[in-house]
Amino acid sequence: MGDILSQAEIDAMLSGVSATPAAPPEPAPQQFTPAAQAPAQTVSPLNLAPLYAPPTGAENKKVNLYDFTRPDRISKDQISTLRNLHEGYARLLSTTLTSLLRTLVDINLQSVEQLTYGEVIKSISTPSCIYVFQMEPLESSAIFDVSPSLIFIMLDRLFGGQGRSVDSTNREMTDIEKTVIYKIIERSLADLKVVWENIGIFSPKIENYEINPQFVQIAPPGDTVVLVTLEVRTRTGSGLMSLCFPFILLESIIDKLSGESWISAQKTTTQETRRMVERELSTTNAMLRAEIGATQLSVRDFLQLSVGDVMVLDKLASSDLTMFIEDRPKFLGKPGVIGRNKSFQITGIIDREVGDED
């Protein structure tokens, strides 16, 4: 068999591969020679290079880098849902702060990022205004961070100023200032509760306040968190607000953050939402009054009224009275007495037509 290498030729080839030439010679045009007629010679690594040439053209494959120190535990679809969720939060919070500060406040969602908790802590300046809160009944805690420049803009506005930024924003807030800002953060978290109702019923509650981010430990440094950054602008200045949610907090509701689940949740009313509305309404007070009838008198006749005078009303004595709830006619009924208490027996409900003003 003429195409089988001899032992001497194999030894020469192996010795040529292990040798490292000082400067590889340029390849010369070669002609095909059968192995039986080829003399024994050393083979340089340059001769083997074409065997390991990378594929070209259609065989090329795109390589994506993956950082094992920052695993992506939340999908892009879920990040997109969180972005849509907090875009609505930015609009609602903008209306709330505009009402509280009595000036135009514009809030835009800047970013929704998936980072490690250690990176978030390093990005927060010292001193800062960090509020740690819980989203009951979810486990773990979250962070509501407000830049000091924005804090002092709001304080200046709330205390009667123009809402201008203060140069010395590296000082701590006084006790009075902390109390005022605490109320602002509570209102901001109440808006967050409203926005998150599409996912579930949560009750944000502030746990504590810190100025040094190193003292805030809601997750291990290597754990994944979602950082939501909001840019707040007023006529006299601007600043940043950020929300930090650890993965352990989002883990129990991560399935509800998919696009289909979030859209279906917006279209239907959950039992939890119904119970929450009923609970809120059950503790609400409303003014009820019954109107016997009405009549018109001139000012002269009104001034001449005395005890024993009789006024003619626009209703018969046997007619039903109208019950008003907060100045809105709602029921018809009869007056009466139960024990020593006055009462009202409902005999009908006033149906309001579509288009009637409140």
Discrete helix count: 10
Write down the overall mean pLDDT: 79
Strand order of the largest sheet: 1-5-6-3-2-4
Which structural category fits the helices and strands? alpha+beta
CATH architecture of the largest domain: 3-Layer(aba) Sandwich
CATH class of the largest domain: Alpha Beta
Beta-strand residue fraction:
15-25%
Helix fraction bin: 25-40%
CATH fold name of the largest domain:
Chemotaxis protein chec
- CATH H-level name of the largest domain... which superfamily? CheC-like
Structure description:
The protein is of the alpha+beta class and 358 residues long. It folds into three domains: 7-55, no CATH class; 76-282, 3-Layer(aba) Sandwich (Chemotaxis protein chec), CATH 3.40.1550; 288-349, Roll (Surface presentation of antigens (SPOA)), CATH 2.30.330.10. The chain has ten helices and ten strands. It has helices at residues 7-18, 45-48, 76-101, 117-123, 148-158, 175-195, 247-250, 259-267, 271-282, 299-303, and strands at 106-116, 129-136, 141-146, 203-210, 224-233, 238-246, 288-291, 321-325, 328-338, 341-349. The strands form two sheets. A six-stranded antiparallel beta sheet has the order 1-5-6-3-2-4. It has a four-stranded antiparallel beta sheet with strand order 7-8-9-10, with no helix packed on it. A hairpin with a 4-residue loop joins β2 and β3 (141-146). The longest helix has 26 residues, at 76-101. The N and C termini lie far apart (104 Å). Residues 42-52 have low confidence and may be disordered.
